[in-house]
Design brief:
Length: 106
């Protein structure tokens, strides 16, 4: 199943759907941090240097865990960006790219 390119744009133009989609705004602004945290959590849960649970549970359990992790990331992103301008990794990336420590606090 693929999402049609204009579907998200069309949904965003409807107020009811805009409010729902805006729940993903902060986590989208912290995309690199979100990705790296998901990779870290996933590898710790699945591989031998962590819990080593690869193959121990079915797809339904892992989908539930993924939804819980993503929900926690949404909440963390909202909390973080209420206090800071950028996500932690985004701030580091900007500072390294510009060869200057960027202001993190709002």
């Amino acid at each position: 199943m693929s999402i049609k390119p204009g579907l998200i744009v069309s949904a965003f133009q409807k107020e009811k759907w805009r409010q729902r989609l805006m729940n993903f705004y902060e986590v989208g602004r912290m995309g690199l941090s979100t990705y790296l945290i998901q990779a870290l959590v996933g590898t710790v849960l699945l591989f031998g240097y962590g819990f080593g649970w690869l193959g121990d549970f079915g797809a339904g359990i892992w989908a539930t865990i993924a939804l819980i992790v993503f929900t926690l990331q949404i909440l963390f992103s909202k909390w973080w960006l209420a206090r800071f301008q950028y996500g932690p990794v985004e701030w580091l990336w900007r500072s390294l790219t510009n060869f200057k420590i960027q202001s993190l606090k709002k």
